[in-house]
Amino acid sequence: MVNLSQITHNLHSPVTWVSILLLTGLSWYYMLFDMTMVMSPHWGPYELTMVFVMWTVMMVGMMMPSATPMIMLFAKISRTRRQRTAEFVSSNLFILGYLLLWSGYSLAITLVQWQLHELALMTPMMQSGNHIFSGILLIVIGIYQISPLKQQCLNYCRSPLNFLMTQWQEGKLGAVKMGLKHGQYCVGCCWLLMALLLVVGVMHIGWILALSIIVLLEKVVSWPEAINIGICLACLGFGLYFLVG
User: Can you name the residues that pair with 122 across neighbouring β-strands?
Assistant: First the structure.
């Protein structure tokens, strides 16, 4: 389980904190003040690019807070090992690998959204316009929340020290690879939960904030099972409502 004292203990890492706060702050600024988009009935390269940028920025803003314990612990261990190896490995390289994985997810869900748009399953306001699609997706999200794969990925995300001790790789390239590996578990934990935005509205800032808080709570509270079960039951309930209501 994440120990929040790991964060406050590393306040002497100004560069790492500046990177986290800058990336998170700029992403939320974009979502709050610049995220406006008028979509044409048929997407071209411009629309695809803009939607990809939107998803990428959203994922940075939503996921960086929950990744902070892992990043700060990486920075601490890297400084400790530097005393023995004399090689400095910036935590920004770990962040780079982590965000590369989420950028890949952003590309994938952009293509999914494009196909849903082409099939007229989503409205121009970027939310589901089909109750059957909404119901099926909600039920799938609910089931995944309590699946073994979700729990396995969540356990890695909740245990920064265990992850770093078992996955550590030396050097700058090793830091990027570790970020990619952590991003792999993080995406595995949250990819369907993020797809909930396809139902409630991709640009709905209230839901974006709510999902960000849920993801953070899953990784830091001592009772994540209650959160997972709650989300599962809510998604199953609303999914059935959309299908039979």
Answer: 128
Structure tokens at 109: 């869900």
Threshold 0.85, pTM exceeds: yes
Give me the torsion for CA of 182, 229, 146, 194, rounded to 10°.
-50
- Measured in whole angstroms, the distance separating CA 112 from the mean position of its chain's CA atoms is 17
Domain locations along the chain: 5-244
- Cα separation, 149 vs 146, in Å, equals 8
User: In the chain, how many H helices and how many E strands?
Assistant: 11, 0
- pLDDT per residue over 160-185, tens digit each? 999 999 999 989 999 999 999 999 99
Residue 159 structure tokens: 């245990």
Structure tokens at 118: 């082409």
Q: How far apart are CA 166 and CA 159, in angstroms?
A: 11
Bridge partners (DSSP) listed for residue 128: 122
Nearest Cα neighbor of 43 from 104, 110, 103, 139 is 110
- How many angstroms separate the Cα of 55 from the Cα of each of 63, 108, 157, 215? 12, 10, 21, 16
Tokens, residue 25: 């702050």
Measured in residues, the chain has a length of 245
Q: What are phi and psi of 71, to 5 degrees?
A: -65, -45
CA-based Rg of the chain, rounded to a whole angstrom?
A: 19
